[in-house]
Amino acid sequence: MKKPCEDLVGKALRNSVSRRQFLKALAISGAVASVPGSLLKAMEAGAEVSYEEAFEIFRNACPRNCFDTCSIKTFVKDGMIHHIEGAAESTFTDGGLCVKGYSYPRRVYSPDRIKYPMMQVGRGSGNWKRISWDEAIDRIARKIHEINDKDGNLLSLALDKYSGNFGITHYGVEGMMSSLGYTTRFVGTPCWPAGIDAQNYDMGEMWCNDPEDMVKSKYIIVWGANPAWCSVHSMKYIYEAREKGAKVVVIDPVLTQTAAKADQYIQVKTAGDGALALGMARHLLDKGMIDQSFVSQHALGFEEFKAYLKKNVSLDWAAKESGVPTLVIQQLAEEFAAADPATIWLGYGLQRHTNGGATVRAIDALVAMTGNIGKEGGGARYGHLRTWGFNYNAMVNPAPEGAVGMMDGKPIKGDFHFIDGSKAKFTDRSMNMNQLAREILNSADPKLRMLWVACRNPFSQDPDTAQLQKAFDTLEMVVVVDQFFTKTVDQADIVLPHTTLFEENTVNVSYWHYWLGINEQAIQPMYESKSDVQIAAMLSKRMNEIKAGSCTFPVEMDTQKWMEKEFNQGIYDFFGISSWKDLRKGPVKAKLPSSAAWHDFKFKTPSGKYEFKSQLAADHGHKALPEYRAKRKPTASLRLLTPHSKFSIHSQFQNLDFMEELNPEPLVYIHPKTAVQRGIKNGNMVRIFNRHGELKVKASLTDAVAADEIMMYQAWFRNSPFNVQNLLDDEAADMGAFKTGAPGIATHDQFAEIEKA
Amino acid sequence: MTETDTTLTPLDTSSRLGCSLRDFFIASNGDDLLTAFHRLNELAPELPRPISADSLEFSFNRLFIGPQAPIAPPFASVYQDEDDLVMGRATQDARDLYHSLGLVSPWQGTFPDDHIALEIDACLQMKARIAETGSNEITTLYQNFLQEHLLQWVPQFAARVYSAEGEAPQILGVVRLTVDWLQNELT
After folding, report:
1. How many percent of chain A have pLDDT more than 90?
2. Could you tell me the residue range of the domain that residue A4 belongs to?
């Protein structure tokens, strides 16, 4: 039982004067008494014992992989974060944060944080030794030199980094690797690549309307996204549109929180979304509800698409494939086409399939043929990178003189890789991030020896835990940079403590909204934590001490100066500011000529038009038209869905005490019918298994999921072996390689069995 | 942290014990831990026989440091505040106390001021001042610090340590010694 703290010092003297007066009075003997080995120091002579009466306010930005990229105001007193707020200056953040955002102080001050560089004696043993930064960096630098001496190159050193921190300066991790020489990079993205490629085939770029313009929509379909949980700040625009008369429809295999708030919920069979979109398109064709002006003036290949629909798509087929009755398909299509403007929000979940890219192309086509592309309040909303035109200063380091790499001329690609490496003599070696285990195991010439993991937690986020364990067992050294002891840190030789967003300077933008914000250092880094770029500078210093010229990364690092270096005139002009310092007053929004993407109909496709028929897609081995692609064949009797929880982003946040109180344990959601057949009651422990592995978890009965599907939210619970990845495989999505360097991953085309444990 | 016995010799037994407890909890490697443990063992023969520096450190890190979520974080606020966090009210209390004595944590702002080693160090400082000056104010402050602060949280901290399975009995012994020492300091 805890009791509230009393004002200790004040109480001691039963003194009614203020703490400040009292402290002054008692600060009598400044000298440290002669206690051997004393830790406490005398306060500096003349230093007033002063306490700040007011808060110091700092600007921060949530760097997580989330649509909302919130602008945060941080209130600091006596060098400690007192509380945080959403910034009111951003109309998107609108003064509020989500449940995860409000928990940030608890992340900074969690006793669980990794505090020091540490070295594990035997991976997975739990036997850790604390080491100094110098020792940690020395061990790493020596290993890198050893590799280079043995192999004559650094291709056996690999980087696995993705979205754990989207602060722009964190691309310094990639810069660190470049500055060492030519290395192996895990490229691609588990997130959204199939859809990115799809939108590139259709329109030449992934570009979405300003989400704030959804208020202008008359009809909103949220398709495979759950903003009520995963983009809470977007909901107010959806609500406002509805208040003005818009209809809100949610299409999802799961009755999500967003679906519960919609006017209509349509439960689609997982991976049958493309069939539904094509069925709607076919019906509109039959009804003549096509925007002739758009398809004839701004589009290429509509006639061929029409012919495909007529020949291959019937409403009965679409109903069977999607599980949505023909009457509903007709009603939905007609309402969507009749509304002006109408918009579809395409979630990332719907493209994590073997037919995901094809699905996005089919939905894009539906939005295009109804004339909703290029329209305010319309649009096929998926994401954008229009505001990401920074310098990537920390990323652009030349390889050291004499460094050797791949000679196949294939430069690194990635959704957030903005550096052109196409003219280099040597290149890095690309491997597929989505098949990490397979790639490590199959690596040869040279075999991977060393892995650096930053902004990533593969043991929670990558499929097939058993295979990943085998893969890690082949590595000679694993270095993980993180804030908490994840399942990946458990498999590290060396772990390095990383700062939180409040302990470094950087700059942040969103892939959804159009706001820009700086992230200021609000407090000193706790313990011995350092940011990615500071770590890179330390490594560079040691590399060069051991062998001069072996690393080109700067050896000194001031995160504020590096944040400043990210800005350029293009950014200033786009956002209408004259200096990054303007952002201290609050976030700013890009000056958009229109809130609509493609408002000028100048598409970036080879034809300059919206391409219903994409030769580029055909050249890349896909269908030229947005044709239906069959679903993945089941490998077990139930489909297994592992979407995002409200309480976490991937493996972040669920480990905090707030979240544990709200969401204490993992569950599997199962339809009552499915449960009855297997003798499973609500609250029973069940075993879920397939050819890859198994896990045990408590069952929760709900008809929010279909009878042939089970669902578990992916998350990392700090005190639980629970890991959905035990059951997933690394099956690829159909698209992604074009723009991100590797195909996506079919996270939602997974199957399993369930039985009472 | 690696003071020799000679340095501690002029101190009374209680202060020598306090110094060694402080040094044990602030040790950053196995050798320092073992040195502090040996010193404690001389003063408290009831402690289990020493183990290797590595074994001691592995267990110490699981209990107090990480990188796993430490079993018993050695910070007052985790136990005394409503929230199980560092840098809370109790941290501010400890900081106030140090400041009132004209002292400051060398790591203020980057390390919670209410770490057990810093708090024991404050005790030692107050003991030394009381011995030098006989100050009633400091005596009252010290007794309050023990009663209202340290003895509020350290027993809870100790309970977490005792409940840990498979950890070094040497460390459990040192924690027990710490609680005893604090209780003995109460007059």
Report:
1. 89
2. 1-51
- Nearest Cα to Cα of residue A475 among A503, A506, A439: A439
Tell me, what's the pLDDT at B7? 66
- Residue A493, pLDDT > 60, answer yes
- Asked if pLDDT for residue B187 goes beyond 90, the answer is no
Residue carrying the six token digits 């020493």 = B50
Is A37 in Cβ contact with B69 (below 8 Å)? Answer: no
Q: Shortest CB distance from A37 goes to which of B3, B30, B97?
A: B3
Report the share of chain A in percent with pLDDT over 70: 94
Indicate the number of domains in chain A. Answer: 4
Phi, psi of A511 (to 5 degrees): -100, 15
Domains in chain B, number: 1
Domain membership of residue B135 as a residue range: 5-185
How distant is the Cα of A108 from the closest Cα of chain B, in angstroms? 9
Give the closest of A108, A130, A718 to B61, CB-based: A130
**Residue A122 near chain B (CB below 8 Å):** no
A725 and A674 co-located in one domain: yes
Distance between CA B38 and CA B11 in Å, rounded? 17
Same domain, A375 and A407: no
Q: Does A133 touch chain B (CB under 8 A)?
A: no
Q: How high is the pLDDT of residue A10?
A: 58
State whether A401 and A550 are in the same domain.
Answer: yes
Q: Answer yes or no: do A39 and B121 touch at CB < 8 A.
A: yes
| Contact flag A485-B80 (C-beta cutoff 8 Å) | no
DSSP state for residue A355 in the 8-state scheme: T
Digit-coded pLDDT (tens) for A366-418 = 999 999 999 999 999 999 999 999 999 888 889 999 999 988 878 888 888 87
Q: Is A625 on the interface with B (CB under 8 A)?
A: no
Peptide bond into B67 cis (omega under 30): yes
Residue in A with minimal Cα distance to B132: A33
Rg (CA), chain B: 16
| Closest residue to A11, CB basis, from B129, B137, B148 | B148
Q: How far is the CA of A505 from the CAs of A60, A109, A581, in angstroms?
A: 9, 19, 13
Is B79 in Cβ contact with A8 (below 8 Å)? no
Do B101 and A5 lie within an 8 Å CB cutoff?
no
Out of A43, A111, A527, closest to residue B84 by CB:
A111
Q: Using an 8 Å Cβ cutoff, are A362 and A626 in contact?
A: yes
| CATH code, domain with A644 | 2.40.40.20
User: Å from A729 to nearest chain B CA?
Assistant: 28
Are A227 and A180 members of one domain? no
Enumerate the β-bridge partners of residue A686: A697, A756
What are the tens digits of pLDDT across the range B24-69?
999 999 999 999 999 999 999 999 999 999 999 999 999 999 999 9
Question: Which residues of A, range 509-538, sit inside 8 Å of B by Cβ?
Answer: 523-527
**What is the overall mean pLDDT for chain A?**
94
Q: What pLDDT is recorded for position A34?
A: 78
Cα nearest neighbour of B123 on chain A: A35
Per-residue pLDDT at A408: 80
Domain match, A270 and A133 both: no
| Predicted TM-score (pTM) of this structure | 0.95
- Contact at CB, B78 and A115, closer than 8 angstroms: no
Give B150→chain A minimum CA distance, Å: 11
The neighbour count for residue A591, using CB atoms within 10 Å, is 11
CATH number of domain containing B14? 1.10.3480.10
CB-CB under 8 Å, A36 with B7: yes
Would you call A659 an interface residue with chain B, using a CB distance cutoff of 8 Å? Answer: no
The C-alpha of B50 sits at a distance from chain A's nearest C-alpha, in angstroms, of 18
User: Does an H or E element contain A223, and which?
Assistant: strand A219-223
Domain termination residue (choose one: A33, A51, A69): A51
The residue among A20 and A364 whose pLDDT is bigger is A364
Distance CA A39, CA B121 (A): 7
In the 8-state DSSP scheme, what is residue A265? E
Closest by CA position to A356, among listed A747, A750, A706: A747
